[in-house]
Write a structure and sequence with these properties.
Order of helices and strands: EHEHEHEHHHHHH
Strand order of the largest sheet: 2-1-3-4
Number of strands: 4
Shape: globular
Number of helices: 9
Amino acid sequence: MIVLVEGVSDKAAVEALARRRGLDLGAQGISVVSIGGSRSVNRTLRRLNSNQPAMKLAGLCDSAEQSMFRVALERADPSAKLYVCEADLEEELIRAMGPDRVEEVVAQLGELNSFRSFQKQPAQRGRPVAAQLRRFLGTHSGRKALYARALVEAAEESAIPSPLDRLVNDLLGGWKP
């Protein structure tokens, strides 16, 4: 089973939630593959298909990329499941957890002062805190993946975004497309 995700932050979130719920992805033969952006889905599937022609697939993507992902997945595996985030996974996490809780995680990771400085930038003034947080998470290389993992680990069970929750629950349930 291969789960295609757009980026490393999505991969970090899936792996963190799987670990949190006691699912050993490797032991179950499940690989989470970051494709480096939605435009790479067809190229990634061609590469994977040459190595594993009978692969079973699932995908996690942003709503803007849903049609491209769906067509590519269904072409490669008609039984593939697709899980779609409204804007992106970071937005889903911030909305589900609430900006205050996300700021607590920012503080725990020692970046609250950096975030406060970021909020003072002219382009950020007057924007909602949730929008500021979402932008802040993408300002440095590796930060999105760091926060995806940290936010999933810190989230109450009820604050796990639905697409991520359904994906990992299906994997836990032994779903085989």
